[in-house]
Amino acid sequence: MLRAYTPGEFYCELTRGGAAQPVRDRLAAVPADELRRRTAEAEEELHDRGITFTVYSDENAVDRVLPFDPIPRVLSAEEWDVVERGVCQRVAAINLLLNDLYHGQRILKDGVIPAELVLGNANYRTAMQGLDLPHGTYVHICGTDVVRDGNGRFLVLEDNARTPSGVSYVVENRHMMQRAFPDLLEGIGLRPVDEYGQRLLAALREVAPQGATVTNPQVVLLSPGTYNSAFFEHVFLAREMGVPLVEGRDLVVDDQDRVYMRTTAGVARVEVIYRRIDDDFLDPEAFRPDSLLGVPGLMRAYRAGKVTLANAVGTGVADDKAIYAYMPRVIRYYLGQDPILSNVETHICREPEALRYTLEHLEELVVKPVGESGGYGITIGPRATREQIEACRAALKADPANYISQPCLDLSVAPTLAGDQVEPRHVDLRPFAVTGVKTWVLPGGLTRVALRKGSLIVNSSQGGGSKDTWVLG
């Protein structure tokens, strides 16, 4: 099936990377009918195992299986080394930035980042001001979205420092490949992904409240519940770590600001909470009073140093798309290093010159709202209709601070099974970094693929799928 495949003018790792030759050879030996049959069986198994996500906007199909493409994405050890070092550098800088923003704010006083961009940000939490966290770790789990351009350069598209999702698909995709395509994996020498749960548990225990006397701090995963779009992942991660999966109603804060979990045997002390609930809904005493998802008094316990929250409250100010534009300066400011992974060129529309440039070149640029995720609200100039361009222009003029713009990149592609043939589809990569005392990066990460021909939107909520990401040893 690869015989007729051509990536055109786009960069493709499978055809341009010499390290991928053994994988190409094995794929070439799989008959087309056999590839399609095994893929169909794999997707049926994903559904039977409940490996789904939820699309709230589609009333006819709420629970969906994330489409799975059987042709793996292959990265050499040298390519992965660049990604791994770049992600570690970026996570270190983000943690230093957050510690500074919630303490001395040196970076604002020195004018590296405009103060109003931070202090006026909806994700900046004054409740975090002056709070010291174990090891200065704010972002315990980070998902950094990375793309490759037409020259094969790795570039950071955005940071996800709040509650990044998708790691369950990384592990499940590998398990699926091991079951459905063992002949492709045998002897290739891939770096494993199975240790993520234990790595995460170890890191969370490292950041337990300082002074805790227990040798194995109790970790729980706090979920909004079964109707959350990522509930499968919450169940998966709790199982992988071997910790209780709880909802807000299962936790209680006592009059000494200690957190307890209700169990069938009574209450049990909790030291670390891996929370998958947004800041606004975390504690009705501190944030939204109408929230039924959170735990009353949780911020009191947090500020008293009686419990650790992962990720920390207020991390959203660091992964804001406007702050993203300043990350190269942030890395140089705190680490004294040049970025290993460059940003995509970004125009901050709150700045008059950037707004003027964006308005003059709308047909050439990608315009993104700074607070949205999931691929929503994006206008891709070269592919937008005249009506979409004019609607974007009006939105920019009405609220320029809500937008950034970037050039439309020639994103790399990967061979993808499309009906009866293999065709190029655009991909990105979300490596997952886990930080306790130090940072560890899961070898590979989530490769998302834009299944619609010509589409640049890889998000699952917008019709994207996923591939297994193979990092060669």
Automatic annotation (TrEMBL):
Signal peptide: none
Domain Circularly permuted ATP-grasp type: 72-450
InterPro entries reported in the protein's UniProt record: ATP-dep_Glu-Cys_Ligase-2 (IPR051680), CP_ATPgrasp_2 (IPR025841), UCP005522 (IPR016450)
Gene3D superfamilies found in the cross-reference section: 3.30.1490.270, 3.40.50.11290
Pfam families, per database record: CP_ATPgrasp_2
Xref: PANTHER family: BLR5612 PROTEIN, SLL1039 PROTEIN
Name of protein: Circularly permuted type 2 ATP-grasp protein
Organism: Belnapia arida
